[in-house]
Amino acid sequence: MIVIAECHTVTRRGLGCRELVQVLVCPHDMLGAGAESPTHGAQEAPGGPGALPQPLTGMSVARQFLRVTKQYLPHVARLCLISTFLEDGVRMWFQWGEQRDYIDSTWGCGYLVASTFVLLNLLGQLTGCILVLSRNFVQHACFGLFGIIALQTIAYSILWDLKFLMRNLALGGGLLLLLAESRSEGKSMFAGVPTMRESSPKQYMQLGGRVLLVLMFMTLLHFDASFFSILQNIVGTALMILVAIGFKTKLAALTLVVWLFAINVYFNAFWTIPVYKPMHDFLKYDFFQTMSVIGGLLLVVALGPGGVSMDEKKKEW
């Protein structure tokens, strides 16, 4: 209605057809220097003229968080992700004798083989961490760290402990996401010819990484009748499903990061236990392994769920 009124006024002033078209496109440009538009000085709400201010929702908080941290979040995620390998590599150095004797006594493999095992773990983990943080040969570093996980799963009999096995698989999911992040898409040999995005291995790496990450939370479920445990199980399961299927992925992953970090600091406070007690090393190992899963979730927040997800399919619908 405002545009029509302005057009009639300008027509009565005798402007030609070209000026009338310009008024229709941008009527404010044709106003005199001293005239003011009816909406001059009024600040428009996001979403266009006359739109109401958007309410503060979980998605808006997640978007604001990404805008503020988008330059630093991938670096923090990678640091968290490799933290358990870094801590374990350093521990191999300071506990060389204990680790060697444990492998020797468990497998009866002899001094030389046990020492080689410890040395391989030490060099493999520290070298992989340096390569990941320096962004050099990241894919080779990921495959090396995958090998370390497999080697430790067998050597320390984690294969028969369901809780530790699921946590190691979750750690592998974080490495899959790191591998997907570093993987450069190959150039098509037929330039300009559309390709199916779903066929990209990167998309399936992100899917596999998301699914494996949620295994960490399955180890945190408590099967008792208390109200807090029931509420925690319901909320945690819902968030795990959202991350796995890729629906509202960034918000769900960010919520899991906050929840898992709080649980980690509360239950795995190894700094409160004297160093000489075995529980100190156990909690320390658990703490940094959980931090690695947090790093994987932060990669999900930073990079998104990938092509094989409901969030991506919604764009096509």
Automatic annotation (TrEMBL):
Mind telling me which residue stretches traverse the membrane in this protein? Answer: 110-133, 140-159, 227-247, 254-275, 287-308
Q: Which InterPro entries match?
A: Surf1/Surf4, Surf4
Q: What PROSITE patterns does the annotation carry?
A: SURF4
Q: Which UniProt keywords apply?
A: Endoplasmic reticulum, Golgi apparatus, Membrane, Protein transport, Transmembrane, Transmembrane helix, Transport
Instruction: Please verify whether the record's keywords include Protein transport.
Output: yes
* Keyword Iron-sulfur assigned: no
Where is the protein found, in the record's own terms?
Endoplasmic reticulum membrane; Endoplasmic reticulum-Golgi intermediate compartment membrane; Golgi apparatus membrane
Q: Biological process (GO) annotations?
A: Golgi organization; protein transport
- List the membrane topology term(s): Multi-pass membrane protein
Question: Where does it sit, as one GO cellular component term?
Answer: endoplasmic reticulum-Golgi intermediate compartment membrane
The UniProt similarity line reads: Belongs to the SURF4 family.
**Protein known as:** Surfeit locus protein 4
